[in-house]
Each structure stands twice: as C-alpha cells, then as structure tokens.
Amino acid sequence: MVTKQLKGSAKDEADVTRADSLAREIFSDIANKWALLIIEAVGDSTLRFTELRNEIEGISHKMLTQNLRLLERNGLVERTVHPTVPPRVEYALTEPGRALRATVGGMCDWTHRYLGAIETARERFDSA
Amino acid sequence: MVTKQLKGSAKDEADVTRADSLAREIFSDIANKWALLIIEAVGDSTLRFTELRNEIEGISHKMLTQNLRLLERNGLVERTVHPTVPPRVEYALTEPGRALRATVGGMCDWTHRYLGAIETARERFDSA
DNA sequence: CCGTATCCTAATCGATACTG
DNA sequence: CAGTATCGATTAGGATACGG
Question: Transmembrane stretches, by residue range (chains A, B) (predicted)?
Fold first, then answer.
C-alpha cells in the first residue's frame, strides 16, 4: 500500500514498515509533473539535454537538470556523457524507466480521452 | 502530446493549441503526489473525509480538502453531503476517476515491483 | 553544450483557530 | 464532522551568471 507508511514500529513489522516508507518516498519522487513529463518525453529515444528542453514545453533549465538527476538517482534514466568538446550528454530510459513509462503513457491517454468531460465538469463546478 | 502546449497561434492550429494547453493544465492538476494518492485511496469505496485522512498516511487536513476540491472540480471525484448533524460527507470516484485509477494503480504496482532495484540504484548513485 | 551556484520571488504546506 | 481562513516557515522555481 503506497498510501500508508511510517506507522508504529512493532519489531515484527519493522521491515514492511520500512518498505512502505521507502515506497512512499519513491512515489513522491516520481509523482510530480516534471518527472513524469520527462519520462514521457524521453520515451524510446535517446535525447540530448537541449533536445529534451525543446521537447518539454515550459520546462526551465533548472527543473530539467534537477529532475533528470532525480530520475538518474532512482535508476529510471541513464546518462551518457560523450567526452567531446563541446560536450554531448544523452539521456535514455532504463528498463525500470520504460516500465513506468507504460503507465505514464496511460495517464497521457487518459488526459486526452477525458478532455471534454473534464472541461464540462469544470464549467459546472465553477458556476457554483 | 502532453509534453507540448501554448505554442504559436497560427489561426488554423488555434484549436489544437488550446487543447494541448488544456491537456497540460489537467495533467499538472493530476500529476501530483496527493491527488494521485487520494485517487488510489478512494478506489472502489465510498469514504468519509476522516476515513480518507486515516487512509492516507501523512496528509494534512488542508491538503486533503484542497486536493479533494481539485479532483471534484475536474470531475474525478463525486462529493455527497448528507444533511445530518453532525454532517456526513462522502467521496467516491466518478467514471473518469475510476479510469484514471487504473493507471495510478499501475504506478503503485511499479513502485513495489522495482523497490529493490531503485534502492540499489540509489546506493550506487549516492556513492559517487 | 551542459552543469552548478546564487539570488530572489512565489507557491506550498502545516498548525491553529473558528464556523455551521 | 467537515470546511474555511490566517499565519509563519519552508520549499519550489525562474533568471542569471559563471565554469568545464
């Protein structure tokens, strides 16, 4: 259960408690706008920093590096530096990254599928 | 493409541009830790405010109401007020909400599935 | 080209108190 | 019980500048 974590620490449950806490931590790392958009943007490609920046509308230099580091740390993204000058740095999804990408793709599909329904819901809500 | 939005407004592309911008807006609403955890927590149940609060470890009163409003506004969650005293307010997923829940469930499964791999990746990363 | 660091503003969040 | 409002404190995030 990702919705639960850190609970009391009866010695027998110490491990599952730790796992829950870790699960939540990972979930919190991943479940944010920029991280998910990056995963979606990389997809099956191998992209350079600047290419990613152009691919993801509105992301700042800082947010991109920050989230790429985060994804790299959690092993979702692999970073390859080509020691040329000027440097060439490429990003690609790892196996875990591609696995997550499947569900992120689902979220994107969902967004488009329900776009109209959501717009209507918003209008109803806002006029109340 | 959820990764793109607001682009230039050549009159022919005005509609798709608007749709992209809306898609991104919705995606940003939804792709946050608390919103996703709430969706996961509600699931197929009908839960009261306090039940939800207990279900989601670490969420504050404020974050819960705030995100419930957000989900309600976007038509993912249905709010039912029973005019008793004390009041009884129940939350359940709508059809769009349940559809999204499927993919959120996928994210949670993913988290548990790759827990070990991620922990290892982190250790490697942190010792560098 | 890519990354880090700094500064500064805006947004987030928790705690608390108050209403129906 | 559920919701709103307010207030500090923390953090996120953009802009900029500089180094490899």
Answer: none
Q: Give percent of chain A above pLDDT 90.
A: 81
Is the peptide bond preceding residue A83 cis, with omega within 30 degrees of 0?
A: no
Closest-CA distance of chain B to residue A122, Å: 5
Interface of B with A in 93-122 (CB under 8 A): 96, 99-100, 102-103, 106-108, 110-115, 117-122
Gap between the Cα atoms of B38 and B34, Å rounded: 6
Q: Which residue of B has its CA nearest to A42?
A: B3
B16 in contact with A, Cβ within 8 Å: no
Report whether A90 contacts A77 (CB < 8 A).
no
What percent of chain A clears pLDDT 70, i.e. is strictly above it?
Answer: 91
pLDDT value at residue A40: 97
Residues of A in contact with B43 (CB under 8 A): none
Question: Would you tell me how many other CB atoms lie within 10 Å of the CB of residue A26?
Answer: 21
Q: What is the pLDDT of residues A38-89, one digit of tens each?
A: 999 999 999 999 999 999 999 999 999 999 999 999 999 999 999 999 999 9
Q: pLDDT value at position B6?
A: 43
- B4 CB neighbours in chain A (<8 A) are 55, 57
Distance of C1' in C16 from CA in B120, Å: 41
Residues in a beta bridge with B75:
none
Q: Which two tokens stand for residue B121?
A: 């990746």
Q: Which nucleotides of D are covered by protein (CB under 7 A)?
A: 1-6, 13-17, 20
d(CA A39, CA A4): 25
What integer is the mean pLDDT of B43-67? 97
CATH of B10-127, one of 2.60.40.10, 3.30.310.50, 1.10.10.10, 1.10.760.10: 1.10.10.10
